Amino acid sequence: HVQLVESGGGSVQVGGSLRLSCVASGDTVGRYCMGWFRQIPDKEREGVAGIESDGSTSYADSVKGRFTISQDSAKNTVYLQMNSLTIDDTGVYHCAACGTAYQGQGTQVTVS
User: Fold this and answer.
1) How far apart are CA 110 and CA 112, in angstroms?
2) What is the CA radius of gyration of the chain?
3) Per-residue model confidence as pLDDT tens digits over 69-85
């Protein structure tokens, strides 16, 4: 059983940056594909970024060039560096182990 806890959200102005963290317990993040998705009110859940166990990454077109996903195996943590934020990036960001039911409670990101 994997538990995921996100942090790092907050309120930021357009053009600002935030770094989200997702700390895992119960298993090693490096064993899984890990990803970030966001939930925006009245919109479908959107996958934002993913990182495979081999370190390869993927991004939604809407965040390419602005967001970077990474992981620190020693800290069992996955990060999402978000730069050049826009109002459309506002939402609740969750991390998840791809293809499983493991996901965190989410952290709110508000861009204004």
Assistant:
1) 7
2) 13
3) 999 989 999 999 999 99
